[in-house]
Amino acid sequence: MIRTLLLILSGGLLAGCATTARPPLRTVAHVDLNRYMGDWYVIANIPYILENGKVATLDRYAPRPDGRMDNIFIFRKGSFDAPEQEWRGISWVHNHETNAEWRVQFIWPFRVPYLVIDLDPDYRWAVIGHPSRNYIWVLARTRSLPDDVYRGILDRAAAQGYDTSRMAKVPQPPGS
Known about the structure:
CATH superfamily: Calycin beta-barrel core domain
Strand order of the largest sheet: 1-2-3-4-5-6-7-8
Radius of gyration: 15 Å
Order of helices and strands: HHEEEEEEEEHE
CATH architecture: Beta Barrel
Mean pLDDT: 90
Number of strands: 9
CATH class: Mainly Beta
Number of domains: 1
């Protein structure tokens, strides 16, 4: 079931790449990969079929000996008491000049763009975009962000052409 859903999403993501008439998303000038590695809570996204109903979601990035990165998506389905599950993928840098453009692959041969379009100077939060602007993720090192920080993120995403009214916060358990 998961493979089928991932195939459907991957096809939709690829189709979205071909139909963008807007200017390309602007990525950040540079990502320090060592600082970026680790755990990132998913604070908000534009909901879509693969992440609907998931709570306590987290992306974990870890360097691999081959130069790529493990990309592990950890979640609970429906409630904080549900068993923890994970999907394992692989990521790699596509633009080595900035390290802000990656490719992510959860199922071979489907690869999707991962664009770091906003990043806190202290790596407390990051925003990941997709060229179609149908997908966006707000990530943070903690389970929540101050309202003013989140509002600023939304404003900058809107300036890049995102319809931020489609975005929804992902339920995270209380705590840091």
